[in-house]
Amino acid sequence: QVQLVESGGGLVQAGGSLRLSCVASGSIFSINTMAWYRQAPGKQRELVASITRGGSTNYADSVKGRFTISEDNAKNTVYLQMNSLKPEDTAVYYCNVLMGVAIHYNYWGQGTQVTVSS
User: Fold this and answer.
1) Number of other residues whose CB lies within 10 A of the CB of residue 18
2) 18-26 and 10-13: which strand pairing?
3) How far is CA 21 from the centre of its chain?
């Protein structure tokens, strides 16, 4: 079993910053990618940012230049630094880990609420 525990969400004013953390524990092996997704009320879950074990990153257009994803491989932890937050960034943010070689295993955290007030 793999557990993902997110932290760092909360309420912030527009223009503010938050830093999300996600720690993976349990039967961790061959992590391919760690990522952050978000889901706003009435909308589909969308990819916010991802990072491969090799350090390659990918961002949604809506967060480029404002959000930064990073990881600490030794701690199996992924971070999302969110700056210049906007009300439209309000959502539940989910951590995601993709593991495995021949067979891929996909795990999700329980989510952390981020609310940006105008």
Assistant:
1) 21
2) unpaired
3) 8
